Amino acid sequence: MRAVVFEEFGKPAEVREVPDPAPAEHGVVVRVEATGLCRSDWHGWMGHDTDIVLPHVPGHELAGVVEAVGTRVTGRRPGDRVTVPFVCACGTCPACAAGDQQVCERQTQPGFSHWGSFAEYVALDHADVNLVAIPDGMAPGTAAGLGCRFATAFR
Ligand SMILES: [Zn+2]
Ligand SMILES: [Zn+2]
Predict the structure, then answer these.
(1) What spacing in Å lies between the alpha carbon of 152 and ligand 2's midpoint?
(2) Residue (of 98, 82, 142) closest to 126 by Cα position
């Protein structure tokens, strides 16, 4: 697949061919239809986030279509239109059990803890916990803004 990759913090990124992602047992791969660019991406690119391992593909504000599903995913199937919150939760830690997935103790974030959505495809963990269905008729560019920028402004 094609993806935006940077090799060094603060240095230019480039579009290149990289291996396609595969879904984890509990995860999916989404074909990206829209992805946003926000201040958090700048922090990641500048090296302010210790989760990021180089080389890296940024991007966390995304919407797209489920392409592949892990063997333990029960609630999603290929073809589903989805987006995700900024913090993807594990669904089982004490914080998640208390309903506070946004502070999950084992949280993942595409574009930070693993490669993100500045790419044709992105892998997302714990799909049954994190994926949010996009209503029919909502444009991908609108849906991609819901998980980070809209939620940040709303809160
Ligand atoms: Zn953001
Ligand atoms: Zn958790």
Answers:
(1) 20
(2) 82
